[in-house]
Every structure is written in structure tokens, then in C-alpha cells.
# Entry
Amino acid sequence: MWRIFKLGLFTAMTITMLWHWHVEEAKAEPIAIIATDSTAAPADDIFFAERVPMYTEEDLEILTRVLTGECQAGTWELQIAVGSVVLNRVAHEAYPNTIKGVVFQRGQYACTWDGNYYRTPTERNREAARWLLTYGSQIPANVVYQAQFRQGRGVWKKIGSEIFCYR
# Structure
């Protein structure tokens, strides 16, 4: 997560403190900071920090398309819940550990075999996917089922016609 080049202990500690402060101020927005020494004289102890997304463009595209295929015109709440199920599955040991693996796991997301995955996403679908990849799942971690019927160990919540269930 950190790449530090030619930085002294004081500068590294300063970066760490700034990062912790930033995370607290941003309500735990997940970012990675790349710090590099400037071209200034060594005594200047200056660094540059930049935000680096912690997800790939492929992750963004796949999550956007699954939101398009599963709930394209759905409410923001529904899109966030559907995307959160994908992220919960990625984090759960019973499922593949990548977004691509979860979405294309055989028999899981109907949109991957009924053609809806390939519809043109809306800007709102992309915005919801980007938001989820930045802030993470917004539902309980053990909610890994989403369908129009009950399954698993009980219902967490129903949003529209979709029922979200515990494993």
C-alpha cells in the first residue's frame, strides 16, 4: 500500500500521521498514498502524496455492468445493496475473492447469461459502482444473497422486489 523512496524516519512518521488524520477526517475513505521524495535538497524533507484508487478499471466496469444488468433503473438504495452483496461475497471465504470471479461464478448472476449485463450502463450505475469501490459494502457482511425469493438463514431487508438474505 505504501511506496516510500529515499525518505527519512521523520518524514515516514509524518506521512503515517497525515494518513491517519486523513482517514479520520474522511470517515475512513479507503485510499492509498504514494509518497516520494521531491527533487529539493535533502535537508528540505518535502514529500508529495497522491490518491491512488484501490480498485482496477476492470473492477469498476464489472461492478457497473452487474448493477446495470440486475437493477439498472432501481433506486440508489437498491443499487448500493446489490453491489454490496457482490463485495460481501468477494470478502467471504465461500466465494471467489475477486469481483470478476463472484459475478461470473456459474449460476450466480442471471444478467451474465440473459444478456442484461451487456446493456448500456447509465451514469448513475457507474457512480454507484465507483462509490461502492471507494467506501465498501453498506450492508451486513453476512448478507450474501439477493434474489426475488427468500434463501439462506433469513431476510435482512426487502428493497423493491429484491430480498437480501443472510448466509
Helices lie at 9-25, 57-71, 76-91, 99-103, 111-114, 123-135.
